TrEMBL record:
Cellular compartments per GO CC: ATP-binding cassette (ABC) transporter complex
Similarity comment: family membership: Belongs to the ABC transporter superfamily.
Name of this chain's protein: Biotin transport system ATP-binding protein
Keywords for this protein: ATP-binding, Nucleotide-binding, Transport
Gene Ontology molecular function, alphabetical: ATP binding; ATP hydrolysis activity; ATPase-coupled transmembrane transporter activity
This protein's record includes keyword Membrane: no
Location of the ABC transporter domain: 2-224
Family annotation (InterPro entries): AAA+_ATPase, ABC_transporter-like_ATP-bd, ABC_transpr_CbiO/EcfA_su, ECF_ABC_transporter_ATP-bd, P-loop_NTPase
Length: 224
């Protein structure tokens, strides 16, 4: 469970999020809102990539400010641009990178990496240079690299934005099938069908916190 207590965030003099009090426990949570409404900042607060200027973010009781490692073990993050996330020369090495401090043996790591590569359709690319993958494959690699660590929650910041329709569908289907809790920031409102809860951010505040259809209506009214 992720809890935000009186959270505000400022970049310099600029208030980007203010007065957020939320408990996030649902399995599928969407976050929508206009450009600049604070969605990415919100997403980054959830795993401590951004620390709140005021207030606290707690993940299973761990404060992102003081227990970053515990938090990141529980909350994985997938960026819009997967290239930002790929750090090792080959596909298999990149997936293994997330397990380097896991305490698992080399054999156990190899087994987990193989399973992750198979699950995300990358088995035949294990020894392929990671930077030569297509955009869609790179996003799958980024997902595999995060999910191999088995976080309880996956936060995705517009994971399909840079992908063509086919790859966007692939990533969407993959996300839909995950057993994990998913917090999805997106401008693609149709991705939120069937979600348990959708937050609409507007000028740094939660303007609506409701089911997908009502959230889309609230969002459209804000933009009207
Ligand atoms: N590192 C930063 N330093 C200064 N200002 C920032 C920084 N990151 C974001 N901002 C500003 O904070 C505001 C909210 O940005 P954020 O990226 O959280 O919004 P967003 O809703 O995700 O936008 P978009 O839909 O365009 O991705 C924007 O005005 C942005 O310019």
């Amino acid at each position: 469970m992720i809890e935000l207590r009186s959270v505000s965030h400022h970049y310099g003099p600029r208030t980007v999020l203010s007065g957020l009090d939320l408990e996030l426990s649902e399995r599928r949570i969407g976050v929508i809102g206009a450009n600049g409404s604070g969605k990415s900042t919100f997403a980054r607060l959830l795993n401590g990539l951004v620390l709140p200027t005021r207030g606290q973010v707690l993940v299973d009781g761990y404060d992102t400010r003081t227990a970053g490692r515990e938090v990141r073990r529980r909350v994985g993050f997938v960026f819009t641009d997967p290239d930002a996330q790929v750090v090792m020369p080959t596909v298999a090495e990149d997936v293994a990178f997330g397990l380097r401090r896991s305490g698992l043996s080399r054999a156990q790591i190899a087994e987990r990496v193989e399973a992750a590569l198979s699950a995300y359709g990358l088995a035949e690319y294990a020894d392929h240079p990671a930077h030569l993958l297509s955009g869609g494959q790179t996003q799958l690699l980024a997902l595999a690299g995060v999910l191999v660590t088995e976080p309880g929650t996956l936060v995705c910041d517009e994971p399909t934005t840079l992908l063509d329709l086919r790859n966007a569908r692939l990533v969407t289907e993959l996300l839909a099938a995950l057993p994990q809790r998913v917090v999805l920031v997106t401008h693609h409102l149709q991705l939120l069908d069937g979600f348990d809860r959708v937050l609409v951010l507007h000028e740094g505040r939660v303007a609506a916190d409701t089911d997908p259809a009502s959230a889309v209506t609230a969002y459209e009214e804000l933009l009207a």
